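Example 3.2
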Amino acid sequence: MTTTSGKLTEPSSSFSWIIDIFSRYKIPFFLLMPICLASIVPELIIAGATSQFIDSYLINNRLNFAVPISWVLLISSILIISLFAFQMLILRRLENLFIRRVSVTVFTQLFRLPFHFFLSNQPAEASARLALGMQIGQMAVSKLLAFCLSILRAFTILFFTLLISVKLTVVSLLILVVNLLVTAQITQRREGENRKLAMVQALADGIGTSGISTIESIKASALENEFFNKWSDKFSVGVNGQQIQSLYVAFTAVVGDVSTFATQAAIVIIGGFLILDGSLTLGSLIAFQFLLGSVVAPLGNISDFANTIQQLTGLSGRVSDVIANDKDPRVQSFSTNESQPQPRLIGRIEGKNIHYRFPEAEDPIFSGLNFNIPAGTHLAIVGGSGSGKSTFLKMIAGFYSNNQGSLLYDGKPWEEIPDLQLRTSMTYVAQDVFLFRATIFENVTLWDPRFDQIDAYKALCDANLRQEIDSYPDGVNRMLRDNGSDLSGGQKQRIEIARALIRDPSIILMDEATSALDDRTEAEVLSVIKSKERTLITVAHRMLSAQLSDQVIVLERGEIVQRGHPKELEEVPGYYLNLLLSEDSRVK
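Structure, written as tokens:
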């Protein structure tokens, strides 16, 4: 399990969440049980009719038995086929409901996890969990539940075979029990390894996906071989684990085949002696073998059942990891009524004695941090690399929760403000931009039905993209490639800024969000943002945004070493002046 501290531990083996979801669908289960048992009745009738056909018609030559028995066999066959078809229909419906419920559960639980979970897990591995609902649903219903129903039929039919021959039934039951015990022992031994194997395979897939997404850096630095070594380490572990798992599956299959052969051979041999002894007729032996088919069939599928259990254990562990992780109490959007509009915050932000330490770190990055950001002002956070600028901004954005102290928005902590009000009042613009393979309009609105093309165009113009949009034949309906690969870095950043502006927030947080823009474009974008009464907090290595701000905070190793108006700070020796001079020297 990946905890919020970022440490990887063994995922939970509990299937309780699967049982909990199944318990929501009582009606399909109540239908499946009687249908399964009802299908035994025509099978017993067919077995009895077959016995009479052989003993009375074929052996004793009673010709008047032929036509009635034929009709009984035909009607019983139609009835059993109809019951099986109805059972399969219910299973398909239950599988569809189960897949939907699991997918919704995984999605909501995953997006309720704190930000640290996504930092400690590869994006591809985390996102792959969203597709687990389909796999788990097919295994749990189509394979596992269907097998359990066949086992129920098998043991019920075994009870009726006692009426034909107690000896043959006891022999069949002993072989079946031995088979089940051996399979259960193998499955139990492999349970922990299967869950670890699922995690290793997911990590290998995640590494491969991350390599494809950063292919430019890999090729530019000639790191293909190094990346291959990193990927192959995980992949080889997964292959070795898969080979060991395959051996267990093959062994289980051999046990199933041997059990089937032993059962059939024992029935023929013992049944022959019973016929010679006069305690069993040939028709009864044929009827017993016919019923035994429903008992032997699950034996032949035990290897598949064991393999399904092994795979389901691994997949279930990955879902249990998501469900069992501590949730972020700040995420309330799934239970928020979005139909009720919320007023925007004024935009005043205050921090009192803020302490923060990364879960995996020993020393805190902030100790006793105090700040006050008046509403409608522009605060620039500057400092060297590793000084805590981005952490400061992400803490305000709610990605990180302070360990001690108070972080207030309009005088209230996050938890006392309606989630929708806070999230519509504040937007976070990151340096790394992701664009969907969709139109510019869809990338700006993110499919929010509240906004139309006029709103998107205005936001793009405010982000200084009017010239580009007007030059496209399709305007805002231009289709973009994956991650905006057909756009420049500056254009992608401005689309990200337009995403923020279209929501008209009262607080905008920009973390290196203008790093790909030239000074003139950056100044124009900041001017538009500041033209409305809103709080703006920027983090940037370049000092232009700081020079345009109302207040500057200079961070050094998590401490505020200087604060004040940029014009005042540049007049006195200190960190801020050193940063200005350092940038001037680089420019020169």
